């Protein structure tokens, strides 16, 4: 089963950061609409993000969601660990009877390989902050817009 908690939480945090930069208000309803996600799923993800200080939420009619600390201080690892809980990337098979070399050792071996892979993934996520991610998205958006404009000019020139 696919787990969409991390990518959705990342999009939530990035959306809140963009809204803050633009002086706009974020709510769970606006995030759900922008991300085309179930509002209850958004609210469910807000709980661990708030608990870990990644976002803060004010209640009431004029309530809104803000980053809990500067974008430069929030890593993608922080977001991942907040929403994933203790769920492993891959789970080993339950212990099976030790009937041969493979069945006697597969579980511990798989766990060691998975642990190494998870640590490598977490190290990569730790190198990226929300601020870095936004800057990269903005660069990518400008590249995409420039490529689109060049394509449009080329098509117009061909006509």
UniProtKB/TrEMBL annotation:
GO CC annotation terms, alphabetical: cytosol
Protein name listed in UniProt: Transcriptional regulator
Annotated GO MF terms: 2 iron, 2 sulfur cluster binding; DNA-binding transcription factor activity
Organism: Serratia marcescens
InterPro entries: Tscrpt_reg_Rrf2 (IPR000944), WH-like_DNA-bd_sf (IPR036388), WH_DNA-bd_sf (IPR036390)
PROSITE patterns associated with the record: HTH_RRF2_2
Sorted UniProt keywords: 2Fe-2S, Iron, Iron-sulfur, Metal-binding, Repressor, Transcription, Transcription regulation
């Amino acid at each position: 089963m696919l787990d969409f908690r991390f990518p959705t939480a990342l999009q939530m945090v990035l959306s809140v950061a963009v809204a803050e930069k633009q002086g706009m208000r974020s709510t769970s309803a606006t995030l759900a609409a922008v991300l085309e996600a179930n509002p209850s799923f958004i609210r469910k993800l807000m709980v661990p993000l708030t608990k870990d200080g990644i976002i803060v939420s004010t209640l009431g009619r004029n309530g809104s969601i803000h980053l809990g600390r500067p974008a430069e201080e929030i890593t993608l690892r922080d977001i991942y660990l907040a929403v994933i809980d203790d769920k492993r990337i891959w789970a080993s098979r339950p212990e099976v009877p030790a009937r041969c070399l493979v069945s006697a050792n597969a579980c511990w071996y798989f766990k060691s390989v998975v642990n190494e892979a998870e640590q490598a993934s977490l190290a990569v996520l730790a190198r990226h902050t929300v601020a870095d991610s936004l800057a990269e998205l903005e660069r990518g958006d400008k590249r995409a817009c420039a490529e689109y404009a060049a394509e449009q000019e080329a098509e117009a020139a061909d006509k």
